[in-house]
Amino acid sequence: MKVTGISHIAIAGDNPEQTRILYEDILGLISGSSEVVEQEGVTTHFYKAGESTIELLEPLSAETPVGKFLEKRGPGLHHIALEVEGLDAYVRKLKEAGIMLLSDEPTLGAHDMRIIFIHPKSAGGVLIELCEHQ
Ligand code: ZN
């Protein structure tokens, strides 16, 4: 049971083409895969920045969590994802400590990773994703 690194930093956007031009054409980040994650109501697009990854989130509709986020706050930093080993043990420990989670159990995210989110109210105002390779 340990955190092995920052998996990615996620940004909610409403203009993916403008972002693509900045990230890919101007900054030279390597564009990775796009994936629809129905469960989260988003299309994810990954950009490689050296060893690090930026995940661009586009809502599938205004009714999804990211759609509501954009309506409320506009585009911007959405969450930070920590890659862990022992996700289920972390979930138990978080619950024991009274930390608020967005779901009761881990769900399936992009790249077939198991994920769970820690509520910003329990994490200093930042949405934190824990993710683990299956
Ligand atoms: Zn993420």
Task: Tell me what the structure shows.
- The chain has 134 residues and is an alpha+beta fold.
- It has an 8-stranded mixed β-sheet with strand order 2-3-4-1-5-8-7-6.
- It has one domain (2-133): 2,3-Dihydroxybiphenyl 1,2-Dioxygenase, domain 1 (Roll), CATH 3.10.180.10.
- Helix content is 22%, strand content 44%.
- The chain starts with a strand and ends with a strand.
- Strand 6 (107-108) and strand 7 (113-118) form a beta hairpin.
- Zinc ion (ZN) binds next to strand 1 and strand 5.
- Residues 8, 10, 55, 79, 81, 129 line the site of zinc ion.
Give the full name of the CATH homologous superfamily. 2,3-Dihydroxybiphenyl 1,2-Dioxygenase, domain 1
| Main sheet makeup | 8 strands, mixed
> Which geometry do the CA atoms define?
globular
Determine the N-to-C terminus distance: 14 Å
CATH topology: 2,3-Dihydroxybiphenyl 1,2-Dioxygenase, domain 1
Oligomer status: single chain
N-to-C SSE series? EHEEEHEHEEE
What is the level 1 CATH name? Alpha Beta
Number of domains: 1
For the residues shown, what is the average pLDDT? Answer: 94
Q: What structural class do helix, strand and pairing data support? A: alpha+beta
What count of helical segments does DSSP give?
3
